[in-house]
## 1
Amino acid sequence: MNRWQKIAWFNLTITAICFIICLLLAIAMRWRVAIPPTPLSLVIIPWLVLVAISKVIFRKKSKRVDFDERDRQIHNNAHYVGLWAFVLSITAALTIEAMICFIAAGPGATLGHPLILLLTICAGGGAWIAAESVAILIHYSWGDKNA
Amino acid sequence: MPENGLSNNIRRLRFEKGEMTQQQLADLVGVTRQTIIAIEQGKYAPSLPLAFRIALAFGVPLESVFQYEPESSAPTHNSLL
């Protein structure tokens, strides 16, 4: 497993853990379980920091080349996959939110709470990171069976 | 035959060049070992500069390392004339 696969696994794991924590918090809020109030920033900020510093955590160990034309091609493809995942997830989330709003409160309702938009963007960011990581892992595993 | 019609003799040339390892070849041409593995297996078509660097590393012409067999639907030299 090369450095980029390790970074992709790390980002995917961190994103999955944060997604599960957010899901548990949402369930707890829905069923009004008595938990101490947890600001979402306690989940989102560590996620952003860990994803941002993943290249420092898995730094280059030897002087050998660890990023060449094939890696660049894989990363470019993965960026496109991530971008599409971001756009699709934001579109899907906003559509679902609008439908819920329309059904629950009628045609005059608005998505006024700024937290909803922030959470939607964060969810889109999570989808981007997850999709990009999965694309990187698939690309590498396809040509890397004997590595 | 790989999907892209490109085949190569890298494995044979490595062994003829004193059992050169994939890592040694990768270091010589400035890529990762995984890229050499992918090229050898026909899963990655290298860029032209990289193909020339590989040929130079073995000291042979490019066509001794890489061969291209067009698919039946692809235009051939004769069909273009």
## 2
Amino acid sequence: MINKIYSSPDEAVADVFDGATIMLGGFGPAGHPLTLIEALSRLDVRNLTVIANQGHASTDAKDLSLLLERRQVKKAIFTFPVAARKSRVTTFERKYRAGEVELELVPQGTLAERIRAAGAGISAFYTPAGVGTIIEAGKEKRVFNGREYLLEHALYADFAFVKAHKGDRLGNLVYRKAARNFNPLMAMAARVTIAEVDEIVDVGDLDPEIIITPSIFVKRVVTGEKHSAPWLYSDHRGSLRSESNLRKRDRRSPLC
Amino acid sequence: MLGLTRELIAARIARELKDGDYVNLGIGIPTMVADFIPNDVEIVFHSENGILKYGPIVEDPEKMDAELVNAGAQPVSLLPGACFFHQADSFAMVRGGHIDVCVLGGLQVSELGDLANWMIPERGVGNIGGAMDMVTGGNRVIVAMEHTQPNGEPRLVRECTYPLTAKGVVNTVVTNLAYIEVTPQGLVLKEVAPGVSPEDVQKVTEARLIIPTDIKEMNL
């Protein structure tokens, strides 16, 4: 009988090795595999390459800053590495400025498509995003129908840590609201995909019409801890608020 | 600030959106555009983290859901007909030309419609986010920004000196002082904010402005 359920996050990440490439789902405060990240931070592995949307999870919870604090990350591939407001200096920004971690910046849509391509067995593709910018450095440029495109390569990983809402012992996953984001794509692109879920359900409980990640893409499923830390959100809607409220909110802003 | 407040910049841009448009709003002034859509105009807002038809920002902390946020990490609500999708589908909508209008913030816009909006060089690091993809779909690109930098330097320039987001993609710029169209001939000053003269606008604009004879005051 197939059973991909692991009893603990530590057991689920135990074979992550030095120099591994790891994808981490999440966008804004939603869909970060925080339990798995924390388990990884307890493991004595280094020189990791981390692929994620952003350099911090926009919450007070422990995010990939844990891995950075423990100097486990050698290289980061991000689209949104630092807080939008320069007054908020994240762990990643500190480590980057100290020269402790390399950064490859990727446009968001290109990041998503590079991950999708890896999962779908497509080795590279042409996209117009980044033409005429620093992103085109060292990349093949080609004209199709009179327009320039950049060659972008698939992005593979040894492990993908994804966060889903419900999963079953086969590895079928459904997500909740905007916590879906990069998770279903990363689930396809890694040799070993480990899903952290809010709830494990019986096989057959998930409606086949609504399964987002088919079990074939998932190797391990583990129940995540509840992360109830308040998230920090940006606020640009000055029109409805007093100045003092705005200032209060500004101090809590994560992305901006 | 002379001219329009940030809210009024957003209100002017809201008037550009038509019933049935699929629209992506960036972080900053663009987010506020949603507040000024008339009730009889149905716009479907796209958030690049994977939502179509999100609704107003949630004000009540009890009702906020950290898994229901827009791309600026603000808590949002959903309108009937909303849906979720993953990041690759989200950017298929963008690059594939399915979005009608995107409204972005800007740091500099050149007279050729080049856009720089992701990094202030002095900071040494910046966030590209979805902006580079957002302007590739052939959709109308509206930039919302204050007319000058905080230190008074022009943002509408002959050539961008900040790292570019994309070349030749901006269609319209709305600032606290002016509504400007980017044309093959250059920047056309179509409207000025109430109480602002075309000369006032040119004085704080590095690029040469084309001032048509039928220039209007903004109707807000």
## 3
Amino acid sequence: MTESAEADPVKGSAASRSGLSDNGGWGRYARALGPGLITGASDDDPSGVATYAQAGARFGFGMLWASLLTFPLMAAVQEICDRTALATGQSLGGLIARRFTHRWRIAIGALIIVLCGANALNIAADLVAIGEGMHLLNAGPTTLWAVIAGLTILGLLVKFSYQVIARVFRLLCLALLSSVGVLFAVHLDWPTVLAHTVIPHIQFTKGYLTLLIAVLGTTISPYLFFWQTTNRVDEMRQEDIGGTNAVPLRRRLRSAAKSKLRLSRFDVFFGMAFSNFVMFAIIAATAATLGANAPSTSAPPPKRPPRCVPLPVISHRCCSHSASSDPACSRSRCSPAPAPRASRVSWANPPGSPTASAKRQCSTAS
Amino acid sequence: MFYGLVIVGTVAGTAFSAAGIDPIKLLVLVAVINGIAASPFLLIVMLVSGNRAIMGEQTNRRLSTTLGWLTFTVMAAAAVMLALTSRS
């Protein structure tokens, strides 16, 4: 460790000199895209896609604001995580062991076990979703494809290194852009979309809040904090300084450290912007197709419209918290006993929006 | 560790699909769990990244500190609001 620490500044200066020689070139920024972009793309995992699609299908443009609000928050949090790795050359797990005393570590360990459970559940749900997708394509039974997918991924993990798989996954990031394509394929009322993106609306109902915390939680996910730091440490290990060690910024030359910090920030912010743009596209596209009850043109990965409970009587309470998702209020998903405090806050529907008629219909509710 | 998760996930996934469980519901449930778990982990991240002994010169400055704690507040508030609406 001390050996490498002594050798580093020398090698570091060479790296910084080569860094300075092509200073100002955009190529450096393009090459810097890595851990941040991969973390950003991982954020739009099946859990994310399904949650965003549900948000669009059930509440129309009503949760679009979350895609704008979460951008600065998520970018800040991921940048902070990334910086902990840059500053120390250690991943979050190692830093937790350094920062906290024994008693706290037990509590945090318990939290991490819960998180692992949630992630195993996540993998299970992903596999069922893959199976279901193949089933929808008439390729065979769901269970068979879930097993095939699980075994294939296990096989790839055993056979290939993480680096090889990561390279493939980076290409797969491009598939996420298909949701952006859908955005331009369907008719969107852009002024309405923008209004709903900029002005937050909250409905204090269980259904809305559950989906809101799902949207927030799948965007600002705890596993991404860890993922960001391990990806960054891996990337630092592969740099041509310090051999296979991740050299912390404080052991680098000042100019080299500064340049590394700047490029890493660019990577993280670019990745998070990409991630939230995809999130925006999925919510807007599903809102315009499934949410507005419009005939679906071509939705991204097979998603099912929400299971709806037809209500025999359309109550005002029903309208008050579900009008956003559906003009007729007939296929709304009102729970049999909606929260008594159901109320709507600042629901600003510009005239002519798909929900405007519903709003008129339910105007007595507000 | 990671292999273990994938193996458990594969077994559970097979069981779920055989039981005919709606994957979309399951995926949204995972998202809700992540949302509830986010605030304690944000607390941990902020305590690590604000510690000068660990971070040195790279300790959070004002903007990171503000946005980080704001995120913690938003996630905690969302979880509390959900708990309150679920109870009633």
## 4
Amino acid sequence: MVLSRGPAAPTGRGGRRSPAQPAPAPLVAAKAIVHLLALAPLSLLAWRAWLVARGIDIDALGPDPVAAIEHELGQWALRLLLLTLAVTPLRQLTGQPVLLRFRRMLGLYAFAYASLHFAAWLGLDLGGYWRQVFEEIARRPYVTAGFAAWLLLLPLALTSTRGWMRRLGRHWGRLHRLAYAIAVLAVLHFWWIVKSDYREPLLYAAILALLLGWRMARRLARPRTSARPEQQQRGQGRGDAERGQQQPGEP
Amino acid sequence: MPLRHVPSLPDSAVTDETVYRARRRLLGAAAGAPLLSLAGCAEAEPPPSNAVVTPAQARSGFATDEPLTRYEDVSRYNNFYEFGTGKSDPSEAKKTLRTSPWNVAVSGECGKPGNVALEDLLRGIAPSERIYRLRCVEGWSMVIPWLGVPLADVLKRFEPTSKAKYVAFTTLADPVQMPGIRFRSIDWPYREGLRIDEAMHPLAFLATGLYGKPLPQQNGAPLRLVVPWKYGFKSIKSIVAIRFTERMPPTAWNRLQPREYGFYSNVNPDVDHPRWSQKTERRIAGTGNRLRADRIPTLPFNGYGEQVAALYAGMDLRKWY
């Protein structure tokens, strides 16, 4: 899918693309709110962890704090990942291109939570048992899937800057389609540790199926012939920087 | 009459955990007579969280001097899917289980089958305390002071015949008392089983209490099995039926995932769960900093090899996991 589709896109992009020009106040406010919301679970978790660590309330994270921390961070990583993937369908449904301006931050928060999740497993849970760490990554499908998801998130996080968008050009979109695979791996990672009650991972799997299904349906519905010229149009019509900011491709 | 299921209970059964711990410390100090002169120094240090274990107890495996898991943790971190599949679901569930009257139906290859009231099942058997390690198949472990009776003492009452090669246990499955039953996470009722020689082993235990108190609902009130050398799910809760059988009885987790959960399910660091490692475990015990897991190596038979390994002489434990 291409951003310039739909009448709203050009106007939405107008006036705010030059780096020198500040973003409009409502957008700044909205971004601040999203930042706060994305940081809230982490802050609450950190607060509870602090209570436990200082011995003020050793029950703040329940009987198995390490498992609680891992689970909480992992769940938020997955939720944010799915939220990131929901941006494009939501934009298409609402015709609000401004939504795209939240996609990168959501994706980066997903990466941050995933990294903390991985770090908690390494440092708090398996700390010191390095052989077991490698064994688990290599031999336990659920760990392998989780690790692969995190590893694939790395290049996406690193290339999320404007500079990298510009440098990679049209390859940027292709690269960032990895997000689909990452989400599948993340759901599998959750699915494979469950012993018998699959309701929770099933919910995430259903949401992911919906998000990916939406894209597939759009792709199938769109006549092939019309897709081509449109893409060419985009390539010619815009400067690299502009295209970079508008985030080519549709992960 | 909260302690009705534990007849002729020692006084320790009615004390709360703090007193319980304090007394155990005193006992420990008294036992260590040569160390009495150091008692003043010991005062300043963090108190040991457990008692001194006599050599006989150590040999029997009936007690351990490892730090205990707090009552709050034992009673709030439970796998008891009859009350929900989350770890805190069972402790947060309404107390809907009617533990009195409680009957246990005993049947199968035995001389004296019957439907027995819990009081009669336990009558005349002196309650005792066992401090056992509990290793969950999920990779965490606890150290729990149980109160109860040896399983063998109870089973012998029903005079199992020579055909009784196994003992099967069943948990109550009442959707009214157990809200989790409505969701089919397990093919209800929950079932477990032991080979008869396992069941008759002195370490196999029927618990009616923990920390000197009656078992909370979430820990399997009013009567549960404790088999410390096997993964926790073998220690079936809220038992309503015991059956002596000639054939290996079906067990709940084995039916659900035969490749992942065997009938024996002895704790074994050399046989991993197909999806995760069993080499180490996260010990949940004591009151120290718990933000970093207390990860320790898992021992064969959960450290009870000296007592139980002979039961499996000549068996390939990789095959009979």
